[in-house]
Design goal:
This protein is α+β, with helices and mostly antiparallel strands. The chain has six helices and eight strands.
Length: 205
């Protein structure tokens, strides 16, 4: 992963069972949107690491923003941002990493140059599971972390999308449903990513 520790006050990566937790604290004077974008880029890299395993897998998760405390060991987290993440990191019924309400509100302050391909500029309807509870929303409209490296070509991005979809065992109905929820988001973001790439190529000519 790219070392961005000189850009933030603190970087911690922790593991809770099979869950990966990535935490960032901005340096004094930095805008909240910076931490949101950095967290999204690191989450994207973790997501892609799963695709390169002998038995590839995909992640789902959420980006939150707010106050938190983390133990130096990286294995103990507390605070409002952690509570928000814990309440919804398994809610996506798709292989997506999405922005929870607090992070989404931070993103509203971002300008065009601050996106840097870390998250989708367009909002997506993220399908949510009910987790055995009634009266929960079945979707949430928000931005989604890009699974594609910022400088990747449309061909490279398509290969990543194909690898993501290949991880689903479609013989299981509940897994097939998650794949069917994932594919439209990937397709829409592939178009957005290709447009950004083409624009960047034009600027470099």
């Amino acid at each position: 992963m790219k070392d961005e520790s000189n850009c933030v006050k603190m970087v911690r990566v922790g593991f809770i069972s099979d869950t990966v937790v990535v935490a960032f604290v901005n340096k004094d004077g930095q805008l909240p949107v910076f931490a949101t974008m950095v967290a999204s880029r690191y989450a994207s890299e973790v997501f892609r690491l799963g695709l390169h395993q002998a038995a590839p897998w995909t992640y789902r998760g959420v980006i939150t923003y707010g106050a938190f405390e983390i133990h130096d060991s990286g294995s103990f987290f507390v605070g409002p941002a952690v509570d928000e993440a814990a309440s919804c990191y398994e809610r996506a019924d798709a292989a997506l990493i999405w922005l929870a309400p607090n992070a989404k509100s931070v993103l509203a302050l971002a300008n065009e140059t601050e996106f840097q391909g870390a998250v989708t500029k367009e909002e997506h309807d993220v399908p949510l599971n009910q987790k055995g509870k009634e009266n929960l929303p079945t979707s949430y409209r928000t931005n989604v972390v890009s699974p594609f490296p910022f400088a990747s070509s449309p061909v490279e991005a398509q290969n990543i999308a194909t690898a993501i979809l290949a991880t689903f065992d479609t013989t299981k109905p509940e897994v097939l449903q998650k794949r069917n929820h994932t594919e439209p988001c990937l397709r829409r973001h592939l178009n957005e990513h290709a447009a950004i790439w083409a624009n960047n190529q034009a600027l470099m000519r």
